Amino acid sequence: MLQNSSKKKKIVIAGAGFAGLRLARKxxxxxxxxxxxxxxxxxxxxxxxxxxxxxxxxxxxxxxxxRKIFQxxxxxxxxxxxxxxxxxxxxxxxxxxxxxxxxxxVLALGADTNFFGMKNIKEKALGMKTTPEAMRIRNLxxxxxxxxxxxxxxxxxxxxxxxxxxxxxxxxxELAGALSEMRKFVLPEDFPELDFSKMNIYLLEAxxxxxxxxxxxxQNKVLNYLQNLGVEVMLNAQVKDFDxxxxxxxxxxxxxxxxxxxxxxxxxxxxxxxxxxITRGNRLKTNRFNLxxxxxxxxxxxxxxxxxxxxxxxxxxxxxxxAIQQADNxxxxxxxxxxxxxxxxxxxxxxxxxxxxxxxxxxxxxxxxKFSGTIAWFLWLFVHxxxxxxxxxxxxxxxxxxxxxxxxxxxxxxxxxxxxxxIGNR
Length: 426
Ligand SMILES: Cc1cc2nc3c(=O)[nH]c(=O)nc-3n(C[C@H](O)[C@H](O)[C@H](O)COP(=O)(O)OP(=O)(O)OC[C@H]3O[C@@H](n4cnc5c(N)ncnc54)[C@H](O)[C@@H]3O)c2cc1C
Known about the structure:
The chain is of the alpha/beta class. Helices cover 32% and strands 22% of the residues. The protein folds into two domains: 10-39 and 81-113 and 266-338, FAD/NAD(P)-binding domain, CATH 3.50.50.60; 119-263 and 359-407, FAD/NAD(P)-binding domain. The strands form eight sheets. A five-stranded parallel β-sheet has the order 5-2-1-9-20, covered by helices on one side. The protein has a four-stranded parallel β-sheet with strand order 13-12-11-17. The chain has a three-stranded antiparallel β-sheet with strand order 6-7-8, with no helix packed on it. The two termini are 28 Å apart.
């Protein structure tokens, strides 16, 4: 393997998501020797996964090749690998392609779907934490409608058409909204032989409200939007089991073959990490400089990090802004350490929250203002468009959105499956 033979300080960044990518970008063209490791050779923009799952966008529009980003950054070295173990006593990170020595290790591996230990659900439900998983949802939904056309049993046909989403956070809400628009505008055109008045879209939430982290005004508005779109929202609904055709709740069952699980996350972990550093949600306890407790040269960022500050006694929200802001602060601090300057404590700047349900329907909570409807929807579109990496991707997405807006159609309804059922799974 090509190794660093220079005397430069070696920083290994594990994960090229929002946090890892941002940190590497901030430290390019500095005096550090950066190695950026990820199991994908591209950065993925997770907030728009739901549009891939519902045939609104192609995966290439929301993914960006890492090598392209760092083409002109001589101090950033990318390796495609699965990170497997940390040997902190030797400062070595073990991976599927070999060992990487480091002076400073930054863990930014994000989070995965949390099935809360329910084996059947983990096996049979669909998570949406990676681009291949979002593609798998798109494939299965489209395939179910094809199968519904040829089945002779009415009850099986309905199970194939019905879709259940678990988790009333932004992902669940956005998926439910996009699917109900598909049911209204797209699917009846594609499958005129099926009766879509019988198709149900369920959104189940274990708590008493949708969008738990947003204002009451936005929560009520979103519930209203979804109900008007014909989504069956079930609050205080706890899923207990799923056999592939029936979803079992405490007091009832739902007949649906598609169960999309958007109900919780658990931070990714790596073996070899000290157990005393791991806390709620599998996150790593850090101080205000993102340094992991019990380590001197290992930092955690984004979804993996559990840092408290007076305004966030239970840790920061696991969202893109946390990852980005922590990466910015750490980049500054690593340069400060080099220059023997004092370090900056991390202070989270809450920029607000937003979620969309469909065309002209969105809610926005800013510090001093809360609004909804068309203006909120345009703001949502603008913010997400600007956050996408790459000008070409932005243009593709913009054109796609404009075309869909005027035609009420999405043209990407391809079932792209291989004969190997494991490819595209997770
Ligand atoms: C469907 C969905 C919708 C979301 N919507 C929003 C939203 O609207 N707004 C918002 O602010 N946030 C949203 N989030 C949350 C946001 O995406 C995360 O908070 C953010 O991505 C965290 O950044 P991160 O850098 O910590 O991790 P990630 O961005 O998840 O990056 C982790 C990286 O580590 C890599 N990796 C993981 N394990 C390994 C391993 N063992 N070996 C090698 N590489 C590995 C992954 O491939 C990935 O590139 C959403 C998340 C999801 C899943």
